[in-house]
Hints:
By secondary structure, the chain is of the alpha/beta class. It is built from eight helices and seven strands, in the order βαβαβαβαβαβαααβ. It has helices at 19-31, 42-56, 70-84, 107-135, 157-177, 195-198, 202-210, 220-230, and strands at 10-13, 34-39, 59-64, 89-92, 138-143, 182-189, 242-245. β2 (34-39), α2 and β3 (59-64) form a beta-alpha-beta unit. α1 crosses α2 (42-56), α3 runs parallel beside α4 (107-135) and α4 (107-135) packs parallel to α5 (157-177). The chain is globular, with a radius of gyration of 18 Å.
Amino acid sequence: MTFTRWENRSVLVTGGTRGIGRGIAELFARSGAAVALTGRDARAAAGAAAEIADATGGRVTGLGADLRDPDAVEEMAAEAERRHGHLDVLCANAGIFPEKPLREMTAADIDEVLGVNLRGSILAVRACLPAMERAGHGRVVLTSSITGPTTGYSGWSHYGASKAGQLGFLRGAALELAPLRITVNAVLPGNVRTEGLDALGEEYLSRMTASIPVGRLGEPEDIAHAVRFLASDEAAFITGQTLTVDGGQTVPESLDALSPGTP
């Protein structure tokens, strides 16, 4: 059995300047793939790409792209293909999670979250299709979340809706693209230690850690390894599926179930 040779692959990671996206970009670069990462701020994207390239010795490009702009998304996909000669993998990772109670939520708040998280993912997949068709194969991996598809959290109802919506899109897209040898899957991270999570404060982090059976928060590389598997040749027969990566957070029915000896 042969394993995926990543040095022959081109990977595009949206939202790759920090957090989970940066972890995904770094793992692919370490594996030998040519990586293009994106962020709304082109300078930040270029800086993150340079830092990852220095750390890994990999081929990493930074691209500015606002996923709310269809023209910018099309140019993002085209530029990634131009830089690397082909495009094999899209990691549709870009997302935002501003907290807003439902009573205070405005239409603009809803549009912003759905626009980046859901609409942006769909636009990114659509934009990458021509390049993947030319390559004769493709892998799409969406970064969804346990929040929305599996759990809920007060203040993030619009975020949860966007992440659940990604999975509805995933299943239809997987059916459409299977004849083209393009698979579409998603990872559902639990609480992962990133800049965004750190901003919620130590009390939040402590509460979340207490709810995770393995006893720690996730790290970006925990998600990145799952993404790399779904993007590999070894996962060619997997499509339309979700992989929860949460340290067992969604398994217990309550915190009491984590206590030793609980019936």
